[in-house]
TrEMBL record:
UniProt-listed SUPFAM superfamilies: Ribonuclease H-like (SSF53098)
UniProt cross-references to Pfam families, sorted A to Z: RVT_3
Gene Ontology MF, one: nucleic acid binding
Protein name in UniProt: RNase H type-1 domain-containing protein
Amino acid sequence: MSCFRMPTGMCKELHGLMAKFWWSKSKNMRARIFKARYFPHCNFLDAGLGYRPSLIWSSLIWGKDLLKAGLRWRVGNGEDIHVYQDRWVPLPMNFKIISSSQFDASVKVCEWFDATRQWDEELLKGRNLESVSVFNKALAYQTEFYSVNLAHICSHSRQEPNQSSVNWHAPLDGQYKINVDGAAKLAGLMLEVGAVIRNGNREFMAACSRQVVGHFSAQAMELTAAKEGLQFAYDLGFHDIVLEMDAQGAVDRINSNEECFEAEGNLVEDIKEM
């Protein structure tokens, strides 16, 4: 038996080929037999053990339960995601909506989008008062707690902050630099994004400020700001663009050659394609 080293890139490519071989051939004979016998009217995740299952199918079902424990939907067009039944909310509790149902139980996420694939504010207005009220109360308690427990620390923090050592650098001639940032508003239920475009002579070219409805993680805020800023620049006809932002994690994901399977993966892929 021989042991030898292989490049990391080659190993990843081999893993990808094996995964495609086992999981992407939904039309082969074995897949069609399993589909016809065990889950003809649903998908694999909703399939049961069935009558007198084979050893292979029993093993797959055992693995499916373990798989489902860590799975959740990543929202794209929302056409296959049930609002109240599926795990899709980007909050690490159980990833489901926990407030009482105020829509039909079979409603899908896509039905909450408007024509621009943003959340339909008119449809959702007033529907989430219960969850917002609970959140605001928790936020008030948290603020009071920190006010009491951190007051003595703040009293010792009177020193003037150091001036930032980060300097803005102009892009090359013919290029445009766009700086973007995002911040949560309305108790985290809306995102405010801003973008500024300058040329190689440090001259101001354009700026925008936009609001995006929804609850965003810190990572999603930065990526959404980047996407909105780039779209703004392209709409104005700027194409040779240098994107600058203050979120290293978001920058690393955008520059990575690997596909992002995190919750914010759709945003990352959209930015890469722009």
